[in-house]
Specification:
about 180 residues, alpha/beta, Purple Acid Phosphatase, chain A, domain 2, five-stranded mixed sheet, four-stranded mixed sheet, about 35% helix, globular, Phosphoesterase, Metallo-depent_PP-like
């Protein structure tokens, strides 16, 4: 059975992102090659990857060359830096599927580029990117930006383990607050 992974914000070919996010690479070719290697060490050929946007700043030919080198079947959800190019541009670059809008995964996970507003009564988890090294508190947001995951996609199983641990911690804290009020 294929594994499922989530990732975002590679910014292949984007020089300025190295400064904006303090990426530990000497130059753009080094960044691109390190991220390709990290991806392929993590993802198998038959796995599914949801890329949640801001994939590449390169032309179609260079972007296609990177997509060809990456393991897995890749679905791209367009990010703010991807939307200047058409859906067909990204399909021609080699993505298996391309969505201009968010997707729902397993009836519970809202896959988007930008984080969505989620109040505590909403029964969903928003898996997103866009905010790079920042994180929202709580179990309703899960940031898959490469800066938080050593420039690798994060597996669905790993994400679930983290969410279960966070949920348990949250429930335990809620119980402690309830006990104090008795």
């Amino acid at each position: 059975m294929a594994n499922v992974f989530f990732t975002s914000d590679h910014h292949f070919g984007h020089r300025a992102i190295m400064d904006y996010e303090s990426r530990p690479f000497r130059d753009v070719p080094h960044m691109n090659e390190a991220m390709i290697a990290a991806w392929n060490e993590t993802v198998g050929a038959g796995d599914q990857v949801f890329h949640l946007g801001d994939f590449s700043f390169m032309n179609k030919s260079d972007t296609a060359n990177i997509v060809k080198r990456l393991n897995g079947r890749i679905t791209l959800i367009l990010g703010n830096h991807d939307r200047g190019r058409s859906r067909s541009w990204w399909l021609d670059a080699g993505f298996a599927e391309v969505s201009e809008h968010g997707l729902i995964y397993k009836d519970f996970f809202l896959l988007t580029h930008e984080p969505l507003y989620m109040n505590r009564h909403m029964p969903y988890v928003n898996v997103h990117g866009h905010i790079h090294g920042q994180k929202y508190e709580g179990i309703q947001h899960f940031n898959v930006s490469v800066e938080l995951w050593d420039y690798r996609p994060v597996s669905f199983e790993n994400m679930m383990d983290i969410l279960k641990t966070a949920e348990f911690s949250g429930e335990k804290q809620s119980e402690e607050r309830t006990d104090e009020g008795d």
